Amino acid sequence: MMRATRLHGPQDLRHDSVPAAGEPSPATVRLRIDAVGVCGSDLHLYETGSIGGRVADEPFILGHEFAGTIDAVGADPRTADGQTLSIGQRVAVDPAVPCGQCECCREGNPNLCPHHHFFGVPPDAGALREFAVVPARNCWVLPDATSAAVGALLEPLGVAMHATDLAKLRIGQSVAIFGAGPIGLLILSLARRSGADPICVFEPVPERRAKARELGATHAWDVPTDATDAAVLQPLREATAGRGVDVAIEAADAHRSVDLSFGAARPGGRAVLVGIPADDRTHFSHAVPRRKGLTVRFARRMKHTYPRALALAQDPDFAAMLEGLITHRFPLAETAAAYDLVHRQADGVIKAIIE
Predict the structure, then answer these.
(1) Which stretches does the entry tag as region Disordered (predicted)?
(2) Under 8 Å CB-to-CB from 285, ≥6 apart: which residues?
(3) Coil, strand or helix: which one is 346?
């Protein structure tokens, strides 16, 4: 047996014993889990017991952002980049396991594979447990200088990279980011490295606005619930002389933020929707994106970004930025407290890590 934290129902996380992870098959390895990030999509499962039509109808282990140490290997433990894994190595894990055979996979779009498995989304148990068996091809070896916590952040960093790729952001273009949670802040950091200017951030939580400014946002504005969309966007219109921004990125999973993103984009601009609404529904005014002729892209997880994310995390300054996003750390036994904190957005939490 081993210890794990399981979701027994909405907002009902319990730390208990589950069957041991078992021995790895030929192309897999067994990990001792070292760090697991609490993600916004995890919160949907925590709050409602479902996400995107997937329902946790029995006790379920959450957690898809994770890193660990190999403690057993199968007969052929080779990674996607051809390395042979060994006991004692520290790795980060890509949680998406595509089939590799379907049309999407063959076209180079494994993030769209309709037959994939994904750790932490029903029915595939996640990483909030002591040990897990994972495919070797989903493992990426961590350098000695890269902490397990930063390893767990490679997955959201990859998601942010894919969203930025879809935005086709060019040097000197303007961008607005709606939502300064971990994904929004990572997109901000990438936009800054891409030479975007100005970078406008909209976020209702004061601590997250402050973090956005710290990470290089040109502007960081509140989103008052009692203000009209026009009033919320007025500072952006003034900052861009009425033009709007070249790229608007929605990373807040809130219905209103989609309309705000479309309102912020200039005619002929681009909008990328990253956030996942809790009720699996998105509503927006049709006239604005139609009249502006916007190019609208939906971001689906990540696409071939893990090698770049790992390379970027080896830059000391960028690694320090990633560490700086982590505001709270909890042991596995206190996972329920971590989720409650993130759910309430209390105590200035930006990123919580389970260790």
Answers:
(1) 1-26
(2) 259, 262
(3) coil
Strand 265-273 to 245-250 pairing: parallel
- Name every residue whose Cβ is closer than 8 Å to that of residue 314 and which is 6 or more positions away in sequence: 143, 145, 146
pTM of the predicted model, to two decimals? Answer: 0.96
List domains and CATH numbers for the chain: 2-146+314-354 (3.90.180.10), 157-298 (3.40.50.720)
Q: pLDDT per residue over 202-260, tens digit each?
A: 999 999 999 999 999 999 999 999 999 999 999 999 999 999 999 999 999 777 999 99
The tens digit of pLDDT for each residue in 320-353 reads: 999 999 999 999 999 999 999 999 999 999 999 9
Query: Cβ contacts of residue 63 below 8 Å, gap of 6+?
Result: 36, 37, 42, 119, 120, 126, 127, 128, 354
Distance from C-alpha of 50 to C-alpha of 224, rounded to nearest angstrom: 29
Compute the distance between CA of residue 346 and CA of residue 147 in angstroms, rounded to an integer: 25
CA distances from 320 to 162, 260, 312 (A): 21, 32, 11
* pLDDT per residue as tens digits for the range 125-139: 999 999 999 999 999
Contacts of 36 (CB under 8 A, 6+ apart): 63, 65, 66, 126, 127, 128, 152, 353, 354, 355
